[in-house]
Design goal:
Layout lengths: L15 E8 L6 E6 L2 E7 H6 L7 E2 L1 H24 L6 H10 L5 H13 L5 H15 L4 H10 L4 H11 L2 H16 L8 H12 L5 H19 L1
């Protein structure tokens, strides 16, 4: 098991002059910064441009600390965008991800998440709606389970209620339960005894479906199965 990376410590800064800037061989988008003929740190080109770093520039400790801070924030943004490339994330998921890396302090995480929200990369309202739509399309769940899942993602109650009201009506929930029953039963030959129905009902209940939806789904499913057997 790999050891968890720890937050990189800030170099010991001293005022002086930038004596060289060189492109990193492994990462062309990053530059090595030399101050007073000694390597000080690596920075992204965007950070170097923002602070107008160039050979001969006189720098103070405060200036170098600002460069370092922006470099850490840039790394956090880069990590966040990469994390978002797999699927949309909730605000809580992003905070947990960045905090869990142990690379960024609380202030950097806060600044990064605010930046993501301001640019629309993170939107908990939209996240809730897409989560429910995706679930009902690919892995149907009852409203109770969907509500629990979204709470675990840190979504506010109002957003959860809005997403459920907008996406899941009674017929869609019933259709989802029917699809799960079909997948569960498959090609098995069932007599739909009391015990078999009880197990199927428990199967749906564990996936968050209400008693009324379970009863309707079982009634329809058994009725269709009997028609197929006639």
């Amino acid at each position: 098991m790999q050891e968890k990376k720890k937050q990189q410590e800030q170099p010991e800064f001293r005022g002086g002059h930038v004596t060289a800037l060189s492109v990193q061989k492994a990462s062309p988008d990053r530059l090595n910064v030399f101050v007073n003929e000694e390597f000080l740190m690596g920075v992204y080109r965007e950070v170097a441009l923002k602070h107008r770093l160039k050979k001969g520039l006189e720098v103070t400790v405060e200036m170098l600390q600002a460069v370092w801070r922006d470099e850490v924030v840039y790394k956090a943004k880069d990590a966040a965008v990469h994390y978002l490339s797999f699927r949309q994330r909730s605000k809580k998921e992003m905070v947990d991800y960045l905090s869990g890396k142990d690379l960024f302090d609380e202030e950097v995480v806060r600044m990064t998440v605010e930046w993501l929200v301001e640019r629309g990369y993170i939107n908990d309202n939209e996240f809730a709606r897409l989560w429910v739509e995706n679930r009902m399309r690919n892995r149907p769940r009852g409203k109770a389970m969907l509500q629990w899942e979204l709470k675990q993602k840190g979504i506010e109650s109002d957003y959860i209620a809005e997403a459920l009201d907008e996406v899941v009506d009674e017929e869609l929930e019933l259709e989802g339960a029917m699809r799960l029953l079909q997948k569960k039963v498959g090609r098995k030959s069932l007599q739909f005894t009391f015990e078999e129905q009880r197990k199927l009902a428990q199967y749906l209940a564990r996936r968050g479906f209400s008693t009324s939806v379970i009863k309707d789904a079982l009634r329809r499913f058994i009725s269709l199965a009997n028609l197929d057997n006639d």
